[in-house]
């Protein structure tokens, strides 16, 4: 599924970048070599980034 139509950023690409790059949606877009155009996707992108980062951190906190 495309998260950002303007930049053709797919959900899987955004999630992978969220694990590797700090910052909000604009920062992650920058790491992908893109920048927001119309901005309609930013809220959903920020939610997916937060979701992805929390799922990456969850196993560590459970094991501790």
Automatic annotation (TrEMBL):
Source organism superkingdom: Bacteria
UniProt xrefs under Pfam families: Fer2_BFD (PF04324)
Ranges where the BFD-like [2Fe-2S]-binding domain occurs: 2-51
InterPro entries: BFD-like_2Fe2S-bd_dom (IPR007419), BFD-like_2Fe2S-bd_dom_sf (IPR041854)
Name this protein carries in UniProt: Ferredoxin
Species per Swiss-Prot/TrEMBL record: Aurantiacibacter xanthus
Species lineage: Bacteria, Pseudomonadati, Pseudomonadota, Alphaproteobacteria, Sphingomonadales
């Amino acid at each position: 599924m495309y998260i950002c139509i303007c930049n053709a950023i797919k959900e899987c690409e955004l999630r992978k970048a969220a694990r590797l790059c700090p910052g909000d949606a604009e920062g992650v877009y920058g790491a992908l070599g893109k920048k927001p155009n119309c901005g309609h996707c930013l809220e959903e992108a920020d939610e997916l980034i937060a979701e992805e980062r929390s799922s990456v951190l969850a196993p560590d906190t459970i094991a501790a």
